[in-house]
Specification:
alpha/beta; Rossmann fold; Dihydrodipicolinate Reductase, domain 2; 4 domains; ten-stranded mixed beta sheet; 19 helices; 37% helix; elongated; disordered N terminus; binds NADP nicotinamide-adenine-dinucleotide phosphate
């Protein structure tokens, strides 16, 4: 087999020295500690193997070294010693692909990728089922089998409807990271901190690949984990963390990688979308549908993470980092959930040609990074208006590709497991790459763009007392704040004597609308807090 040019990416420095020492290679340990360039290191290695004569070492930039026709090196059979110190990645140009992990992978390419699974709930159970059901297909696609070596969860006695006898059960979840017979760890426990984070850190520290579906952990610690993966020259993969089975992470990281992304936004929480679209279809009120969603298993017993927009905000912060090349900044997401959306809002939206969706919206401009999760009025002609039930959808707008729409099942055993296993297939193939599409040091730290600088139209709904002067008070507050009203609808008095007033504003600065609402705060004319929804333009 002739390989053509091969690019090698070497791990150098303290970690390589440590590994070299562990592998008993004094030459490597010394040179790695000295921090010599990857090229020198490789040249030295080749010398050590007596291969230099056969190798034509070409261009070297930083950690990248081009070897013209690396065939002899791969044919020596002496290369396994290079594996641990280097954890190199190799990519054949003009020849077949060699996976990340470089020479070490020469050995493992034909061996199974050995994984440990932590968490055997909805997603973990789904992963075991999928790996078993599609084993042959996965092996053909990945180039090698994916073998579950060990599993762990909280309660060993729990009946999960899966035969676990084929796998070694481990009580101490964190110990999965340090097993010699494990190449990659799959974390499906959940929670931003605690055992999931402990396991994630330990796994990457060991230089093993990590797959996770844990958006909460990534939103809070994604930057640190990406840095740890980079340091160890290993993979951090998280396709399932955003929009479940929808391959939007890959879409942004790879498919749209050539574009400057202008906006990324979408329907990111299936529970909220189920509630809103069921309200839309039935005319029933929020609390009623929430109870139904809980009974159907679409909403948790404690639904606050979903309906208060936190879950969508976790996902948005991950998407924004990938889309704009910025450091994850979950704390900067402005979050409003759907608790205060009433049936009348949905009905008014329909009358005005809109549908209500909880939209996570991200944009980066001269003012900084803007991230907001908020109930929005979506025009009927917009793709997000047609995302119904528990589906998720993400819109990515790139400067060359235009608008991309990623849509599908954002949760559930099958779709989420599909994304987790896709990540494992990538790892088995050696397709690593930086977690957030660029090296951590290249991720910009942007300030938060103030919402007030934004322009747009807004929907406002007031529940007011049925008495003279109220309408004048509201319109005066708008006028004084500089808000121009495009339309105003007043509905007749309800049984309790309250009146519904709905306004749509003309395009204008958002700060003016916020200012008008501040002026009205505490007014005895208002019988409840007003509802503000931003209007998404086509
Ligand atoms: N469910 C979805 O549709 C979906 C979609 C996208 C992403 N995700 C993400 O995927 C992850 C898993 O979600 P899930 O729905 O599968 O959760 P789940 O059904 O609640 O399962 C969690 C699993 O973690 C185990 N676990 C909990 N605490 C543990 C601990 N201290 N030590 C060891 N194991 C522990 C549990 O063990 P026991 O079974 O013994 O209690 C259970 O097997 C989360 O990060 C979630 O956000 C889920």
């Amino acid at each position: 087999m002739r390989l053509g040019d091969v690019r090698l990416y070497a791990a150098i420095g303290a970690r390589a020295a440590h590994l070299a020492k562990a592998a008993g290679d004094a030459w490597l340990a010394e040179h790695a500690t000295l921090g010599v360039g990857a090229g020198e290191l490789f040249r030295g290695l080749c010398l050590a193997l007596g291969n230099l004569g056969a190798l034509d070492i070409g261009q070297r930039t930083g950690r990248v070294l081009v070897v013209h026709d690396a065939t002899p090196l791969l044919e020596t059979g002496k290369t396994s010693g290079l594996a641990r110190p280097f954890r190199a990645s190799a990519l054949a140009c003009g020849g077949p692909r060699i996976r990340s992990g470089g020479f070490r992978e020469e050995k493992t390419m034909t061996q199974a990728l050995r994984i440990a699974l932590a968490g055997l709930g909805t997603v973990g159970g789904g992963v075991l089922k999928l790996l078993a059901e599609n084993a042959a297909l996965i092996e053909r696609r990945a180039g090698r089998a994916i073998e579950v070596v060990a599993v762990s969860a909280r309660d060993r006695a729990r009946d999960r409807g899966i035969d676990l006898s084929r796998y070694e059960w481990v009580d101490d979840t964190a110990s999965l990271a340090i097993r010699d017979d494990v190449d990659a760890v799959v974390e499906l426990i959940g929670g931003s901190d605690g055992p999931a984070l402990t396991l994630a850190r330990a796994t990457l520290q060991q230089g093993k690949a990590l797959v996770t579906a844990n958006k909460a952990m990534l939103a809070h610690h994604g930057l640190e984990l990406a840095g740890a993966a980079e340091q160890a020259n290993t993979a951090l993969k998280y396709e399932a963390a955003v929009a479940g089975g929808v391959p939007v992470i890959k879409g942004l990281r790879e498919g749209a990688a050539a574009n400057a992304i202008q906006h990324v936004y979408g329907v990111l929480n299936g529970t909220c979308n189920f509630i809103l679209t069921t309200m839309e279809a039935t005319g029933r009120d929020f609390d009623d549908i929430l109870s139904e969603a809980q009974a159907l298993g679409y909403a948790e017993a404690d639904p606050s993470f979903d309906i208060d927009g936190i879950d969508a905000a976790h996902k948005l912060s991950i998407l924004a980092s990938l889309a704009f090349g910025t450091q994850i900044d979950f704390d900067a997401v402005a979050i409003t959930g759907i608790r205060h959306v009433i049936a009348a809002d949905i009905a008014e939206a329909a009358a005005l040609g809109f549908r209500v969706r909880l939209v996570g919206f991200g944009e980066a401009d001269a003012h900084g990074l803007f991230q907001r999760v908020h109930p929005c009025m979506v025009p009927e002609g917009h793709p997000l208006a047609h995302v119904t039930g528990s589906l998720n959808a993400v819109v990515v707008e790139g400067n060359h590709v235009g608008r991309l729409l990623f849509q599908g099942r954002g949760a559930g055993e099958g779709p989420t497991a599909s994304a987790v296993v896709a990540d494992l297939i990538d790892i088995a193939r050696g397709e690593y790459g930086p977690a957030f599409a660029m090296p951590v040091k290249s991720l910009a730290k942007l300030g938060t763009a103030p919402a007030g600088e934004r322009r747009g139209r807004a929907y406002l709904r007031f529940t007011v007392a049925d008495r003279p002067g109220v309408l004048a008070e509201l319109t005066a507050a708008m006028r004084d704040a500089g808000v121009s009203i495009e339309s105003l609808i007043q509905r007749g008095a309800a049984a309790d004597g309250s009146v519904l007033l709905v306004m749509v504003t003309h395009d204008g600065p958002e700060r003016c609308v916020v200012h008008a609402l501040e002026k009205l705060e505490g007014s005895p004319s208002l019988l409840g807090p007003p509802m503000l929804m931003y209007i998404l333009e086509n």
